[in-house]
Amino acid sequence: MSGARESVHGEWSGSVFFVLAATGSAVGLGNLWRFPYLVGDNGGGAFVLIYLLCILLVGLPIMMAEILIGRRGRHSPINSLRLIARDEGLSPAWQGLGWLGVAAGFMILSFYSVVGGWALYYAFEAVQGGFQGMDSDGAGALFEGLVASPALVVIWHTAFLLLLFGIVAAGVRRGLQRAVTWLMPLLFLLLVVLVLYGMTSSGFAETLTFMFRPDFSVVDGGTVLTALGQAFFTLSLGMGAIMVYGAYLPARSSIPGNTTWIVGMDTLTAIIAGLAIFPIVFSAGMEPGQGPGLVFVTLPVVFAEIAFGSLLGIAFFLLLSVAAITSGISLLEPAVAYLKERSGLSRTAAAGFITVAIWLLGIAAGLSLNAWADVRLLPFADLGIFDLLEFVSNDIMLPLGGLLIAVFAAWRVSAETRLAELGMQADSFRYRAWLLVTRFLAPAAVVLVFLNALGLFG
């Protein structure tokens, strides 16, 4: 029955803290940095509509499956899969799925912390008034100077990881729960402030047209696959984060209800991010399709030109930093939880060992953008360390993990276990719909994302 096994790391005090933590995991640079520029690059409203459909049909059912596994196992992803496989009479090889997720989160955090450091650096620059009088050349020089400096990259990468270590080392309630209790409301408050400003700007009407009036003439197969990939990756699926947070979910809490809240809040955040960013861009007479440089190169110029730009710049990059921190916490937690279970170390010691290991790999990733730019680890792939880590984790490990999560939860776990954890009846429409989508539609969609990432669609 649900909740028969107790979490060895503690539990959330209630569903609201789980929702805040899981939403914090999902809401990160993917929402505030990647989503707006993908909307800009893919024609606006049509991309948004396709993205919403992908969230509903792929993201929601796989997230339910991942939380189901986490709560049933009540341990780190590795040990949760091992215990459930034993209980269900399945091959112990299924714990490899847990290893895949923990390894993916470890690798992602190594380069994610570098980008998180950029967000902290830009927040620091904004507080110092560093964007005042900045033009496009100055913004480009600021970003290039940051990336080209080994010292700056390592310093801010270190600062970011120290923040994560302090939070994760404190434990589920004193660290994770307390952090999200403060950080998530702050994140939403900052977003609302930026949207309210956008509503007073000359670019808000153009933003509404751009984001919510679909133009399907610009849609092709690549647009659909891009939206599908963004929907999958923005929810932190396949990296062990949602699974380990699910392990701390009280037995009385509804998995379908909580998942709906998480997916809804993550999606709303992405939409609000667009409503916050595009009015600023349109008001300055700039094009929305600026690509990845939209946040770090384009927006500083805009903040230098518009009214209250200094305050808005501080608010935006503080927001970006908070989002990066809440996601980073969830990437660190699975590996820390497993090491604590395996070694018997204190949580502080386990968090310290994992943080140092990620810090070292992150230094390699950061230096690959400057001093080690010519280093190639694989002779057949012209990718630096940063790009290699990103490709292997995001484009291979996460889709594979998502696919195996769907297969394990919908095909291998017994119906009795699924029904007990989901709190559903076997003949209910909700259960049949979830099972159908998780067994067939979601895996097929993930396979398409995987093949697209490997370049098999041209």
Structural notes for this entry:
The chain is mainly α and 458 residues long. It has one domain (15-453): Amino acid/polyamine transporter I, CATH 1.20.1740.10. It is built from 18 helices and no strands. It has helices at residues 15-26, 29-41, 45-73, 77-88, 95-127, 136-148, 150-169, 172-199, 204-212, 221-234, 241-247, 255-283, 293-305, 309-343, 347-367, 385-412, 415-422, 429-453. The model has no long low-confidence stretch (mean pLDDT 89).
Which descriptors apply to this entry?
single chain; 458 residues; mainly alpha; Amino acid/polyamine transporter I; 18 helices; globular
Q: What is the CATH class designation?
A: Mainly Alpha
CATH architecture field: Up-down Bundle
Mean pLDDT: 89
> How many individual β-strands?
0
Give the radius of gyration.
Answer: 21 Å
Q: Give the biggest beta sheet.
A: none
The count of helical stretches stands at: 18
The CATH topology assignment is Amino acid/polyamine transporter I
CATH homologous superfamily grouping:
Amino acid/polyamine transporter I
Determine the N-to-C terminus distance: 48 Å
Order of helices and strands: HHHHHHHHHHHHHHHHHH
Strand content: under 5%
- Overall geometry comes to globular
Count structural domains. 1
What is the fold's blueprint, element by element?
Layout: H1 15-26, H2 29-41, H3 45-73, H4 77-88, H5 95-127, H6 136-148, H7 150-169, H8 172-199, H9 204-212, H10 221-234, H11 241-247, H12 255-283, H13 293-305, H14 309-343, H15 347-367, H16 385-412, H17 415-422, H18 429-453
Helix pairs in contact: 1-8, 1-11, 1-12, 1-14, 2-10, 2-12, 3-4, 3-9, 3-10, 3-11, 3-12, 3-16, 3-17, 3-18, 4-5, 5-7, 5-14, 5-15, 5-16, 6-13, 7-8, 7-14, 7-15, 8-12, 8-14, 9-12, 10-18, 11-14, 13-14, 14-15, 15-16, 16-18
